[in-house]
Sequence to fold (344 residues):
Amino acid sequence: MLPSTQMEWIAAAGGAVLAVLGALSARYVAARRRIERSWTTAVERKLDAIGEVDDLMVVPLVERLTPMQQLLGEPGVSYLLRAGKTTLLFDTGLNRRSEIRPALVQNADALHADLQRLDGVVISHVHPDHVGGSGSVRHRTFAFAAEPLEPKGLPAYVPAPMSHQRAEVVLTTGPRAIAPGIALLPPLPQMMFWLGPVAEQAVVVNIRGFGLVLISGCGHPGIERMLAVSELVLDVPIRAVYGGLHLPVHALGTPLMLQSTIGNPHPPWRPIGERDVASAIAEISARGPRLVALSSHDSSPWTYGAFTHAFGERYRTLQVGDELTVSAAGVRWRPLHSTTTPTP
Ligand SMILES: [Zn+2]
Ligand SMILES: [Zn+2]
Fold:
């Protein structure tokens, strides 16, 4: 039998845990209800024609998977987009403190991507793996690296209030064209039990003779809603889905345990599962996509398999340096060895 002081201590600790869980549950249920009622309110406005580009090039500068040693992999996202004459950086990776040089900077150098020659930055949402680390989240900002490398006056399109010492921050409050053929979808809310609320925006690029490419960071709102919102905002068919969809299914034994637990939009007793993947595949399939490319930072090998089964040759798991070009002529992947300089 435990001494009574220890029993009291255990009872008090148990009570505190239950109180925290109760508060988190109440917060979660209330926010989910609010989101279910209001998620379309930001998208009532339709965009006028946003124009077209002849081609889009996308290359992941940060992804979890990397095909060779001189390119660093980390569980974050940063994509370099070139759509017509416009060059954008979509998210800025995780910026792991253990690395001497952040993956974003190291990989940009190796892939000859000039981070000083950008027309803008788009931040999908304020999570550490998309804004350059948890320090950036704490300060509601984003960063390429520990030292300030961002060009002065660079337009930065953000989905939630943020600030930056050098960039010109522009808050997205609804659908918005930001350059010929390029638009932002309105930030969509999502509530996670442990992480709390988040608002996430996606980019769409309209390619002449091809249709829309939708580019997603983590996909927290769910691809179903992102596709629906794109269709509410623009009268152009979606032909490609690219980036994070947050489907870390059967994550036990993979490096995606964290994503599967704290990034779960369901209550903790319902993990992200096979039916979520089936639903995402069904929604994407219904659009007749010519390309589906899944980020390796927030989906698991089981999900890559399910997507490969569903989309065959049209599917790709993204790795650092995997250069994609989309045009009226179709989809082309450039072999990495022709884009990198071998280390001596
Ligand atoms: Zn993410
Ligand atoms: Zn996230």
The longest helix spans residues 4-38. The CA atoms of residues 322 and 336 lie 6 Å apart.
